[in-house]
UniProtKB/TrEMBL annotation:
The lineage of its organism: Eukaryota, Fungi, Dikarya, Ascomycota, Saccharomycotina. GO terms for molecular function: SNAP receptor activity. The keyword GTP-binding does not apply. The chain crosses the membrane at residues 196-213. This is Golgi SNAP receptor complex member 1. One of its GO terms (cellular component) is SNARE complex. It is a single-pass type IV membrane protein. Its main location: Golgi. It is found in: Golgi apparatus membrane.
């Protein structure tokens, strides 16, 4: 089992080693990566082993004190102090490990959000391009429809013009075939002109009569 002094020297050496390891381990909380490095894993495991080893040393010191009823109060006080330091180091180790994990979770969440935003941006860009292509296609369809309607209207006008021309030709041909029809039409036009002249003269006389007699 060894003497109290020998075992306590081992405890002091392990305490010094723990403080050095904790100092190195705390740096990972300041420069945390998304995944633990091999160095971080090794240091974490080594720290936990050293702390467990110190726990065994504390048990040995406690057994020495219990088996020696004449143990001095100073040694009991030293044992108590070693136990308190061990608890402090355990707490420091757990806090640092928790801080590293929290920072790692934050980084992973940030990376995940950035990735989602990037994917959403790509999807939005694709959707925008698809919408623009759809609107362009719709515009082309409208233009094609207007052009088709214009051609149909043009064809209708051409057809109507051809029909009117055909009807006019038929009327002319009919007039040419019927003897004396042109003479009759000329007389009708002459009579219409005479009637219009007589009516205009009558209206003029009435107006002059009213003007001078009013």
């Amino acid at each position: 089992m060894g003497s109290f002094v020998t075992v306590r020297s081992q405890a002091i050496s392990l305490e010094s080693q723990t403080e050095s390891l904790l100092s190195r381990f705390s740096k990972f909380a300041q420069t945390t990566s998304s995944e633990p490095s091999s160095q971080e894993k090794s240091l974490d495991s080594k720290l936990e082993n050293v702390l467990n080893q110190r726990g065994e040393v504390m048990k040995t010191l406690s057994n020495i004190c219990n088996e020696n009823p004449n143990i001095s109060a100073s040694k009991l006080s030293q044992l108590q102090r070693h136990k308190e330091v061990l608890q402090e180091h355990w707490q420091n180790f757990r806090n640092t490990r928790s801080a590293i994990q929290q920072e790692r979770n934050r980084l992973n969440l940030l990376f995940s959000v950035k990735k989602d935003i990037a994917q959403q941006s790509i999807q939005d860009e694709d959707t925008y391009i698809q919408d623009e292509a759809r609107r362009i296609d719709e515009s082309h369809n409208v233009v094609d429809s207007l052009i088709t309607q214009a051609w149909e209207t043009r064809d209708q006008f051409s057809s109507q013009r051809a029909m009117l021309q055909n009807a006019n030709d038929k009327v002319v041909q009919t007039l040419q075939r019927i003897p004396g029809i042109n003479h009759v039409i000329a007389k009708i036009n002459t009579r219409r002109k005479k009637n219009a002249f007589i009516l205009a003269t009558l209206i003029t006389v009435c107006i002059l009569f009213l003007f001078f007699t009013w």
